[in-house]
Design a protein that fits this description.
It is a single chain. The protein is an all-alpha fold and 138 residues long. It has 3 domains: 11-40; 51-90, no CATH class; 92-131. The chain is 72% helix and 0% strand. The chain is built from 7 helices and no strands. It has helices at 10-30, 33-40, 43-60, 65-72, 76-89, 93-115, 120-126. It is elongated. The model has no long low-confidence stretch (mean pLDDT 79).
């Protein structure tokens, strides 16, 4: 019978996680992790977990939300949730994400400049010192 997580006490939730992690660790040490996961999880659950890991890897690689969503057919809320989990578990990940977003923003500006060579973005890219005295929106 399917149970909601709220139906279990906090102690039972912790014990259940501990049992799962212990079994997975043993299977990994024995070299039977693939068989263990195939027998433990339904195909749908395997896909769900695999996609979460895939999203995390794409985020770590610096892919944009729109690229991830288009490739894996997931919504921005799902991607944001996984990014939040990564930020909480991996302290240096936040710096990496910010650096990658800055790089992506520059790339986006360059793309827009190429699309419209007479626009302000293209002019600023071509003549950056002319724009030092003027505030530029971000």
């Amino acid at each position: 019978m399917k149970r909601k997580i709220d139906d279990l006490s906090l102690e039972d939730q912790a014990l259940t996680r501990k049992v799962l992690m212990s079994a997975a660790t043993r299977a990994a040490k024995n070299g039977t992790i693939e068989t263990f996961m195939e027998n433990l999880l339904t195909p749908s659950e395997q896909i769900m977990f695999g996609r979460r890991i895939w999203i995390a890897r794409m985020l770590l690689a610096g892919n944009q939300f729109s690229d991830i969503g288009a490739r894996l057919l997931v919504g921005p809320n799902t991607i944001q949730k996984i990014e939040d989990q990564l930020l909480g578990k991996m302290p240096d990940y936040g710096k990496t994400i910010k650096q990658n977003r800055r790089k992506a923003t520059r790339t986006e500006r360059q793309r827009r400049a190429a699309e419209n060579p007479l626009g302000l973005t293209a002019l600023k890219q071509k003549y950056p010192f002319h724009f030092l005295l003027f505030p530029w929106p971000k």
